[in-house]
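Sample 1 of the test manifest.
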Amino acid sequence: MNYLFLFRMIKTSVGRKQLMAVTGLLIASFLFIHLAGNLLLFKGEDWYNGWSELLIANPATIYIEIGLLFLFIIHITMAVWVRTEDLINASYRKYDMSRWHGGRTIGSATMLYTAIIILVYLVFHIIHFRFADKSIGVYQMVVSAFRSPLFVSIYIIGSVALALHLSHGFQSALETLGINHIKYNVYIKIAGYLVAVCMVFFAVISLYFYFGLDLREIADASNIVEMTIE
Amino acid sequence: MEKNKFSITLRVWKQKDASSKGYFESYKVEGIIPDMSFLEMIDVLNEKLIKQGKEPIFFESDCREGICGCCGFVVDGNPHGPDEHSTVCQLHMRRFKEGDVVTIEPFRAKSFPIIKDLIVDRSALDKIIAAGGYISVNVGSAPDANTIPVDKNTAEKAMDYATCIGCGACVASCPNSAAMLFTGAKIAHLAYLPQGKPERTKRVLNMIKVMDSLGFGNCTNEYECEAVCPKEIKVGAIAKMNREFLFANFLSEEEPQLPPVFHKSTVDVPEDE
Ligand code: HEM
Ligand code: SF4
Ligand code: FES
């Protein structure tokens, strides 16, 4: 019976939240690695394609991808379960005058909505990048996609939603795992907001290519600087 | 003195019982003295209503000094009223002014059925306590006070959590109607003390199991509870409960059980294992 403690976890409110917290934090750490890799877009085609080839060549990649899929499935299943119960509870709780008392934040109050936006963003992203035709090279594929205003709009909305989700999600996950200490709470909050701000960089990347900033010759730029100095 | 008196309009939630439909009724309250407590103001109104042969407003109170947890309803959207970290019996009329329209309604939560008007049934909280909010001691004469040493910081921390008066404002303020702050405070209070050690794992597993079965919600760490708690219980209590649960779940061989006092006839806890 005791070997089934994971099921007991799923049967308990706190356990479900702890599974959500662990999977959420693991997904967030994937996002950091993903962001770091994508920042190579700024270094140019060779670097970015090189990174992509490394990933493709690595036999572990496919298992990591399957692991990621499971993280998403667990996170979302628990979220749907928890939120369904909470929405039923909320229907019993209609105050004539309802207000926030200082605990809620925009991030915490919109978790459900940002989650839905992120899911749409993720599906769109996976369809267009993971399962795309990469014959022109991954770099060219990504850069040409970001020429489309629709693409960039989705990236901006999606990344902002992701930032909001994590602005609450990061410190919420730590609290759920029992990490709360009067000495560190301030730093945990700040770290959560920093994590959130990092996510906006996905949008920054797409905007960078949308406005063609990569096409501007570095030499030209330095010429202009020299000319103005003269 | 006379010239300080003022009047307000009170919008009160009236509801006959749990199954009836409720509605708001407005009352004009005159001759309010700023030094009156909010409950005294309702007392004055109720006396007038009774003299007129009308039904008074039903509300709950006992100590009227912020230590029993009986009182508690929502004033203009704030559980226990607009004052920070105070019970509604400690709210005074100097907080209000001539012509104010004040809306009062009961704590609203799935697990707190309305008994009448502003009175809700908070016995679900007692059921959580019965599931593990106790320690085992020998009966007979009281043991000597300092036989078990407890350092000052630990004693203070346990005391901070022990100050929870079980008023239920945390549940009322929670967007998910969760009872995590209450349950967390009760678990943390005993978990920090050596006297609480023997039942430590059993306590957290059983209290959470009963809390879930009573229909309280899941915590999404909104921290509204901490913001309204009259006893300033911090969400560190919830974190402590989460830690206790994590360790109990992974390391102990204990299975959660409903305590023997939970007879089907007295408490409707589903038997699911
Ligand atoms: C500027 C922003 C982004 C770019 C350029 C980007 C690029 C890519 C590319 C090219 C792939 C496919 C890798 C391959 O098939 O070899 C990929 C996969 C993936 N991306 Fe992104 N991504 C971005 C943002 C995000 C965000 C915000 C999320 C999370 C919500 C995300 C989640 C994923 C996931 C889960 C995969 C599949 C995992 C994998 O195939 O390794 N990405 N991304
Ligand atoms: S934790 Fe605070 S708000 Fe909740 S029941 Fe205890 S005293 Fe009341
Ligand atoms: S009546 Fe006892 S706390 Fe208000």
